[in-house]
Amino acid sequence: MTSDEELVARATAGDHDAFNQLVKRWERPIYALAYRTLGRDEEARDVVQDAFLRAYRGLKGFKGEAKFSSWLYRITLNLCRDWMRKERRAPVAQTPEGVDPIDLADQQAAPTESVEDLVARREMSAAVQLAMADLPEEQRTAIMLKEYHGLTFQEIADQLDCPLSTVKTRLYQGLTVLRRRLERQQAEVASLRRATFSASGGSR
Amino acid sequence: MCDQRERLMDYLYDEAPPAERQVVEAHLESCGDCRDDMRAFRRVREDLLAWDVPHFESVWTPFAPAPVTPWYQQVPAWALTAAAGVMLLLGTAGGFAAQALMANEPGSPVQLVAQAESVPLVDIPAPAPVTPPATLVSLDEADVRALIQRAIAGSGVMRVANTTPGLSSAVRDQLKRETESLVYERHKELWGQMNQFVVSVQHERVREKKEYQLELGGLKSRVDSLESDIAYMLKQQNAKGQQQ
After folding, report:
1. Options 1.10.1740.10, 1.10.150.20, 2.102.10.10, 3.50.50.60; CATH of A1-92
2. Whole-angstrom Cα distance, residue B81 to residue B83?
């Protein structure tokens, strides 16, 4: 597979197809980063488009000191920050409107996954999304770059312009907060289930 | 509380060198709090995997493959126009000169015929006396083109006429036809190239305009955001001032 560096060099020399390949390779991770940062599908798609347009325009200024993907992540995070600042909004946990999660799960269950498992996974997905949305931005970004994009501590430090030790502290603090929130949510869900079970006479 | 945060993170995310790992493992053996943290963090990491993102369809419209840029698209329009004008002038001059060059003698096909006297030319300085060649000289297309090229390259057609001892009417007709056809073809080609050039410039301008509009939109929203930030800060400042 052609390396990013090679494609960047070709794209800089005017090869549009090389840039198309870079987009194809990176648009999903960029969308995932934007979506998890903003919590909004439409806006995340806009950010993806803007990020690649900016990258295209800035190709000549990209000296290749960092990885192309790191540069792209930085552009994306800046765009997300701009959007949040402009809209004065915190990231939201977005759930489909007017759709019963159980119906949705029924339609989406993979052949090997029971509807109950899928509902549990979706519940957990929503719980994580809510817990992440409550984190301070620096902690949330550090956790996202580490957990979902596999960046090293050093790469995250470069992205966020902060010392290495700060990155580790942010991760530690973020994980600690998430731990408490998720444990509390899971305890609440368990107690709700117990109550439902007792109300239905223990028939299920 | 144990102050091993950074080491725990190195260990959790597998970024600790082997020696460091051993140190952390030894610490975990003896420190219940850190052991508990480590277990909990691993659970959180598993839970984090559950966060799905919606299905994503590409929003990118791929760029069209780069066309091979013909040389004339790299030349400024004014230069092309000037070149076309010069070519037209030279062609026309060539046509007139060729007409003036030709003697009214019949002959076939394309031949330079030896003549005893030089051809009188209109508006041309008196030709130098030349010795007419004794034999027929064949003149093919390449020769005609070369003749025209020489005429175009130098100050030209007239000089050729001056140095050419005498031409038959067949050569004259042939030369005239060739000159006209060359001028016509070249003219047509240049017009085609100029049209393509104009169209490509228009496309480029439309594309640039779109890009600038996008950028302008971004800048405007940035300015709006800054303005509202400033307004908010001023409000806060006023509120503080009033309190004091």
Report:
1. 1.10.1740.10
2. 5
